[in-house]
Amino acid sequence: MRRTKDAKNPYRLSESVSPTAYFVRWIPNQKIFALSADTREHLIKKMNEPEAKELFMFCGAVEINLSLARATETVTLHAHDLKITDGYIDKDGIRHGARSVKYNKKYQTATLSFGKKIGAGACWLYIEYSGTLNDDMCGAYGTTYQDGDVWRYGIATQFEATDARRVFPCFDEPAKKATVEFSLDIPHDLTALSNMPVEYETSTGAVKIVTFKTTPRMSTYLMAFTVMKFEYIEATDRYGVKVRVYTTPGKKEHGRFGLEVALHTLPALADYYGMKYPLPKLDLVAIPDFAAGAMENWGIETFRETALLVDPKNDSVAARERIADVVDHELAHHWFGNLVTMYWWNHIWLNEGFADFVENKMVDLQFPAWERTLRFISESVLAALHAMDKKNSHPIECEVQNPEEIRENFDTTTYSGGGSVNLMNEQYLTEEGFRKGLREYLQTYAYGNATTQNLWDMIERATGKPIRSVMGTFTRNTGYPLVTVEEQENKEATTRRFKLSQERFLFDGSKDKKNQTWTIPIGTTARNASKPTYSYMFGKNMMLEVPVRPGDWVKFNPGTTSLYRVLYPPYIRNELRAAVKAGDLGPADRIGLLDDVFALAKAGHVPMVEAVETLSAYEKESSYYVWSMIAGALGDIDHILHPGVRMPDDAYTHFREYAKNFFADPARVMTWNKRGDETNASILLRALALRCFGGYGDTETITTARAKIDAFLAGEPLDPDIRQAVYILNAENGGPEALKKLMRVYDSTEDHQEKIRVLRAIGKTQDPDTVRRVLDLAVSNKVRKQDTVIVFVNTDKNQAALPIVWNYIKKNWKLLYARYHGDGIRHLGNIVGVAKRFKTEDMYRDVKRFFADHPLKGAKRTMAETLEEIRLNIAIRKRDKDSIARWFAERASARGPVSLTLTTEALMTELPELR
Ligand SMILES: [Zn+2]
């Protein structure tokens, strides 16, 4: 185990005291379960009345079997907002009462002093304590749900990363694993769920005491329980594990798809990892109020409703894809994370990077038609490239000490960066070799903890390949490289020679002072090449000969599978643009090329006009995932040219016309109506094309969207797959009237998928007064806390609303801070992150001043990166706005009327081929 740096961390507990078993009895005030009201808002009002405060108290008793490495007079363990009322140690049958308890608020600990030395060896520590349920969605917290005609109050938990200590005094570090036996006191008509199945229930009058079976050795952050009125559906997987989906009353059938996914993937993972699922049961529980997407508590995964449930009436491809992703992600953790846990939080990528990668594999296995591997490139790899290119970015293996730093580490770099490194690992080791290494690692460290070094060691032992020196550079260094390609003179007629050099890529084109180098998997593909070839770049420079005729195109990073960008000389960029036009490149390469050229243009390595020119090579695109990139690239240009709150100028009008025409073909070909058996990609493309075509001003599309919502409100059906587009186009093009209609949809349903669609849409409102009303709504009791963020985040590309949103944030800071302190800080970070779209010096100063006056522990990096982004926006506008405005003006005068160049059949038959 590691001692070096960790030993100096004052937030860490002593290494000489280790728990081996917990017995926890937890007793909430039973009166809270009797609270009820006819609407959710009434229930929340009731809960906020001053006399209701004591309702939220709980008390408990915990017995901990300890192993003391040496004699000690004191024991320090974690306790956050808990009051210890009694404590003693039982050593060899002799009881030593605690003389005093000292709390340390900063380190979230309690120290019990016994007044004399307790000898080394095993002993029992017994503590009685009390605490309070919170409404911050961490520790043990309250959640509201509908039970028939009334609203009631239930309890859920979220312990990752450091909140088990809010619920019972414990040694709340991932490496302090122990077994645990939970007992809860609850009313007879409710269900309690926890990591293990119920061992027995005893009745004491009005309550029952539910005791769960003892867990295997596990980390405290993976423990969980929940108390509500639940219903469930169940099935047994092909290895005999009982899997249940639990929901609040009336929703169990919405869990069918989630159950189907779990039944497929749980045994598929056992096959992949070569180890059976370690627990006797698995519950997937939908929790109405939930801060994250989902949580992999061992044996009891908890989910936000939108990540697990889909109402057949509102069933959409987007919802199903998300559910499959999240369920498979959490399932992957039962081995990677739960069975073998990172030793400390700086290795959190060992959890999240693997779940991110394996999730994609499992979804692809179950739904091969979904193009999940292509989505992995367009989502995970690209997300990592965009997260890791800031000056304030952190390495994937990142030193963290305190709860705020730990919390901030759960970000795109850890998830998608870690996932992308695993894609590179697999490519380097082969699928078989990678799996062998993982199995070795899981078997060696089962029920224990491990570091990144342990993983590399096990892979090297299993495969004989030096993975640490090759891939370790991507987890230890900050960021990723830019590979600059220069062609060398070559007399051979069958090859081209290149000189490559590397340096860190930074999104604003600045130089990295650290002089890092990476071991880069340099792959190339070329015209007429049967498959890509790979060699590894170890130092600053490298010479490379590629078997391709001079004049034929050659592309590096084939399939965009690796974390680096490529800067070619201008004539090679031309060759590649021609290759896109000619249809020579596959979708993953088209995605990578477009993303690279825009990132390089923003950083000033290539002219922005060239990025725009490259985009125009994609006019005949057929893949949804590339279209999605195109929409993003047009969004970037929109951001540069948008005049803000002023009237649109010529440049912006020309651009909008161009962007609209871009989507004219797919929008008109797809139409609003599905045909027969369409692929997911085709269904998603319809929604995207209509949303963008209308979004850039096609009046017929907007009119149809208006008619569709009216008909829907009048009781006619509306295809759930186009609802998001319909709602957004209404919000974008209507003031208070549109908001009223959308809120009618919101109020008429308890289905979270549908509510979320509305919340996303209303973030696109343009008219200032209505924007203010939207924001008031977002922070009202109508909207659950986790969903408020959705409204704010969806205003970020809404240039007209941005200044209003920012003023609203500043004016209502106290309210927002009260809503999201503690673990919710991440949400608040996302909310203030909307400021990254500003693009003037005035706003830069304003945001900077506000951040300086309102620092957020746990969102420090988000704030720093927001300022970095505003700086870059200002630079880009200064440098590129006029040149791209000219480009669009020239295009506008040269262009004739819009023509329909693709036929329905061509597009429909092309899509499935691109899988
Ligand atoms: Zn995860």
TrEMBL record:
One of its GO terms (cellular component) is extracellular space. GO terms for molecular function: alanyl aminopeptidase activity; metalloaminopeptidase activity; peptide binding; zinc ion binding. Its EC number is 3.4.11.-. Signal peptide: none annotated. The record marks 415 as: Transition state stabilizer. It catalyses: Release of an N-terminal amino acid, Xaa-|-Yaa- from a peptide, amide or arylamide. Xaa is preferably Ala, but may be most amino acids including Pro (slow action). When a terminal hydrophobic residue is followed by a prolyl residue, the two may be released as an intact Xaa-Pro dipeptide. The active site is at residue 330. Its cofactor is Zn(2+). Residues 55-222 form the Aminopeptidase N-like N-terminal domain. Keywords: Aminopeptidase, Hydrolase, Metal-binding, Metalloprotease, Protease, Zinc. GO terms for biological process: peptide catabolic process; proteolysis. Residues 553-871 form the ERAP1-like C-terminal domain. Belongs to the peptidase M1 family. This is Aminopeptidase. It comes from Candidatus Sungbacteria bacterium RIFCSPLOWO2_01_FULL_47_10.
